[in-house]
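User: As part of a screening pipeline, I want to sanity-check one entry by hand. Below is the sequence and the SMILES for 6-O-phosphono-alpha-D-glucopyranose. Please return the complex as structure tokens so I can compare it with the automated output.
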Amino acid sequence: MMVDVVKDATSGFDKIVLREPQGSSAQVQLFGGQVTSWKNERGEELLFLSSKAIYKPPKAVRGGIPICFPQFGGLGSLEQHGFARNRLWQVVESSAPLPTIVNDGSAVTPIVSNKAIVELMLTPTEEDMKIWPHNFELRLRVALGSSGDLTMTVKVKNVDTRPFNFTFALHTYLSVADITEVRVEGLETLDYLDNLKDGERLTEQGDAITFDNEIDRIYLGTPTKIAVIDHEKKRTFVLRKDGLPDAVVWNPWERKSKAMTDFGDDEYKFMLCVEAAAVEKAIVVKPGEEWTGRQELSAVSSSYFSGQLDPRKVVHGSSKAHLPQNQTSIISRFSLRLFAAMTLMCSSRNPNIKKS
Ligand SMILES: O=P(O)(O)OC[C@H]1O[C@H](O)[C@H](O)[C@@H](O)[C@@H]1O
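Assistant: Here is the complex for your manual check:
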């Protein structure tokens, strides 16, 4: 396991490169605390990054995994998706030793762990406190596992004297071969807020989500596991999440792509955003408390992971299964309701918030 700190030639800011012995790697920019690359053991890029991405503040980089904090979208008085994605983060001293930061990219340090790990932190500046007057510590731990899986753990600590609340998303841009050949499983039968219809609340009817037009939806209270199946690439992304109850699905399609200056006209064909998020209900953190959210991404061959997700296993966390479609949706509705009821009974308070 190796962790390097190098200067990013495009942005001019430092970035951290994580590598594991089988060949997979990831890159995390100090600008935005943003993962901008995640490659499998064959060196294939798994995240989408626009060829027109702009690396200059205050613009956030178009692609990778931007962090939306303390506000998702336009749900508040701050700039779209909050300010964390266009601030300069710091490397935190963590259990995994980090090399000294140098400018020529020559620092290399072996990490004694089965994961390559980096931990970054963002704290507000005086200017930030003027627009969002809450003192916080936002920590991001990125870990690349021995099988190439990418885990992001986010912690928000209230170091202020008053409670504050925030909305949040890990705005993951997945790279796909052809958006029209992609399906998303795990969000069937759920309610969603449709951003293309003024946030109207609707219910997903289909067995899986497929794409032939612009989409911008916030699926509410989703299972902990979502699968994105890229038929063309014969690859399935599995996203597991905790503490982030919602999932945003976004593709700008043709017209909106042309309107974005930092996005190629045809690039919508090669990306899909599936975002682990807390949007519908803001997270409230009292003084001294810390909230934790987590997402784990893995990419597996579709021959290993094929057909529809068994919703029982979606809820309980195993990976592959086949069921006839009608059976799937009946069990899906039943088990999702049962799961929702059990969750409500068991969690009178947010289990992802701890007192320090
Ligand atoms: O252009 P950005 O500010 O990065 O936002 C890109 C997209 O992010 C999310 O997916 C929102 O739901 C979309 O409404 C928004 O267009």
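Points to compare against the pipeline: The pocket of 6-O-phosphono-alpha-D-glucopyranose is lined by residues 73, 80-81, 195, 216, 248, 250, 273 (CB under 6 Å). The helical segments are 126-131, 253-259, 311-316, 325-346.
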